[in-house]
Amino acid sequence: MPGGAVPTPTPDTVPFWEAARQDRLAVQQCQSCGRYYFYPRDHCPFCSSGDVLWRDVSGSGRLISYVINYRPLQPADPESPQVIALVELDEGVRMLTNIVGSPADPDALPLDAPVTVGFEPRGEWKLPVFRLAGGQ
Amino acid sequence: MSTSPMHGGNVAVVGAAETTGLGVVPDMSMVQLHADAARNALADAGLTVADIDGIATAGPLPMEVSHYLGITPTWVDGTMVGGCSFMLHVRHAAAAIAAGAATTVLVTHGESGRSRVGMSRYATRAPDTVSGQFEVPYGALMPYATFTVPALRFLHERGMNRADLAEVVVAQREWAMANPRAFRRKPITVDEVLNDSPPVAYPFTRDMCCVVTDGGGALVLTAADRAADLPSASRAVYLLGSGEAGESPIMSQMTDVDSFGGFRSSSAAAFASAGLTQSDIDHLMCYDAFAHVPLYMLEDMGFVGRGESGAFIASGATRPGGSLPMNTNGGGLSYTHTGMYSMFAMQEAIRQLRGEAAAQVPGVRTSFVQGVGMYFAASASLIFANQRP
Predict the structure, then answer these.
(1) Domains, chain B
(2) Rounded-to-integer distance, Cα B189 and Cα B177, Å
């Protein structure tokens, strides 16, 4: 992992980052309308209910879109192309992430490929990243 | 169709100008570029700073610009939603003029985007913001690595490919070749865009990304009835309709990855408020920070059907002589892009409506300007005409 900026959690996002530090992907689910949502908030963006719970999810999803960034800025390694991707989890939420463990090559990164979460150290936290499911 | 007081040609652009220099202007600071454009626009209108009671800008605070110019405004708009901010300023100014809250409004843009004189460094999104936590750690900071992320999905959903992005570049370069102020003027082919232009962020090569320049522009707006008494009366340009919209501040939360709801809603609002449809539009400016953006816009605005944008561009429809001339200054891809381009899109629409463009399209009576801001976060739509309806 070529490194990069370190997030600073805020009160509404601490549970997400604390879970990631324990290699768990946690997202919130509304207890009123049942929908999962991302990014963390203390209320549901779909129905405004404040009755929301953190749920550990499987971290399985699919690759929606990406770029292969040939010009990363420090603190990332400028020499290592980054795959900056959108993935959609099975629970329906979409996240921006990096795809790791595959060559930074379009032929190795077909859209809709199944992906699974992993966790990379980043400062004092861990960052959820994804790799192609079944890949090495 | 009935129109509100702010639309239907009741408010006019009476002054419009860009900075004297454009492209590489290392001898002027950001605020100097604002002031140069403002003074040029006032001269164009036949007005002075004493006539201005309203100021709007984004980037610096409005007071940084008004005080620098010697204006003490009684109406101030510092709306900042990224590159299309100045289009929202026009819309807000029209509402204010129609409501009697302002009489004559100056909208300014200036950015030392290339030389970085009098500019802060490129703003890093702070690590405790939503973007700083959920985008920046993944390298999604610079526009070329963030705004571009949804494009592959757009192409994939439609059976389109990178050649469709390259066609946008080629079509707009044709316009730029006729424009002495354009930054990129060398003829280019689809093959060169795909294979010779350096890769920046796959699927984007350098020529699919906007230029990075210094410059600015300014507009002066007032009531159409008042415009008729000015020396610039015969060159007045009227606002027929407008719309604006906001969606997610971060890329991953676009409601639809391959279509932008902001484009759909603000363009629909502009058409409805103008009482016009797509077939009434003679000339189109689509804010093109990157080559995929005009493809989204053409479809989301309803100028073409879903999946038809690539073939439409490739057919030559948007090139010189085509049925829908688009980005006729060369666009952000070839003309100029200081960082917040929408001012230049409006300037070109106004030049075309006045018959004063470098690559003039014959007989332009209506022009639609479609803007975007903070990547796919904000949208603005304006319809201008050179006659009151």
Answers:
(1) 11-118+211-385 (3.40.47.10)
(2) 13
Q: State how many domains chain A has.
A: 2
Q: What is the pTM of this model?
A: 0.97
Segment B228-240, tens digit of pLDDT? 999 999 999 999 9
Both A107 and A118 in a single domain? yes
> Given an 8 Å threshold on Cβ–Cβ distance, is B137 in contact with A94?
no
CB contact under 8 A, B144 and A71: yes
* Domain hosting residue A23, numbered range: 9-57
How many whole angstroms separate alpha carbon B54 and alpha carbon B77?
8
> Cβ separation of B145 and A82 shorter than 8 Å?
yes
Residues in B touching A94 (Cβ below 8 Å): 252-253, 257
Residue of B nearest to A126 (CA): B137
A75 and A43 part of one domain: no
The domain spanning residue A93 has which CATH number? 2.40.50
Nearest CA-CA distance, residue B118 and chain A, Å: 23
Q: Is the Cβ of A102 closer than 8 Å to some Cβ of chain B?
A: no
At residue A75 the predicted structure's pLDDT band, cuts being 50, 70 and 90, is: confident
Q: B189-202 pLDDT, tens per residue? A: 999 999 999 999 99
Please check whether residues A67 and A105 belong to one and the same domain: yes
The DSSP secondary structure of B344-381, one letter per residue, reads HHHHHHHHHHHT--TTPPTT--EEEEEEEETTTTEEEE
Q: What is the pLDDT of residues A87-136, one digit of tens each?
A: 999 999 999 999 999 999 999 999 999 999 999 999 999 999 999 997 54
Q: Quick check: is A2 in a domain? A: no
Q: Out of A7, A85, A111, whose CB is closest to B127?
A: A7
Question: Do residues B47 and B233 touch, judged by C-beta distance below 8 A?
Answer: no
Does residue A121 sit in the same domain as residue A92? yes
Instruction: State whether residue B101 is helix, strand or coil.
Output: coil
One domain, residues A77 and A51: no
